[in-house]
Design brief:
The protein is an alpha+beta fold. 26% of the residues lie in helices and 44% in strands. The chain has 3 helices and 10 strands; from the N terminus they run E-E-E-E-E-H-H-E-E-E-E-E-H. Strands 5-4-3-7-6 form a 5-stranded antiparallel β-sheet. A 3-stranded antiparallel β-sheet has the order 8-9-10, with helices on one face. The longest helix has 17 residues. The model has no long low-confidence stretch (mean pLDDT 88).
């Protein structure tokens, strides 16, 4: 469970519900595995990453990785990495059907995620 507080609300998010977090300057949007979006939290991606580090066990934290400057992704949902096309695709099972969601990232960021996931599976 991740708890995010701001001036107007407190969010309680299950880790399985978080697909990725996208930063845009001083704000973040949280994209959920069910297709929902929690818009415009007044936090930078680094602040959300710090909250994860403070609140989660090392095992739970190992599910998340930074993707470039804009994204914090839940690696459990990664289906495909295509550095040549600069795409990362998530697989989400929703209501008995599979949905694919893609985001753009730099080739270097995608190669770093590939290494992160390979090390995660080699250890786990």
């Amino acid at each position: 469970m991740l708890t995010i507080k701001n001036k107007s609300e407190i969010l309680f998010l299950r880790l399985d519900d978080i697909l990725y977090i996208q930063a845009d300057g001083n704000y973040c949007n949280i994209y959920l595995a069910d297709g929902g979006v929690i818009n415009t939290l007044t936090y930078q991606r680094a602040e959300i990453a710090r909250m994860l580090e403070e609140q989660l066990s090392k095992d739970a934290l190992s599910r998340f990785a930074l993707l470039g400057r804009s994204y914090l992704i839940n690696t459990d949902y990664v289906l495909r990495i295509q550095p040549g096309k600069q795409l990362l695709t998530f697989r989400v099972n929703k209501f008995g059907s599979t949905k694919k969601i893609s985001i753009k990232a730099t080739t270097k960021a995608l190669q770093e995620i590939e290494c992160f996931i390979e090390k995660k599976w080699a250890i786990g």
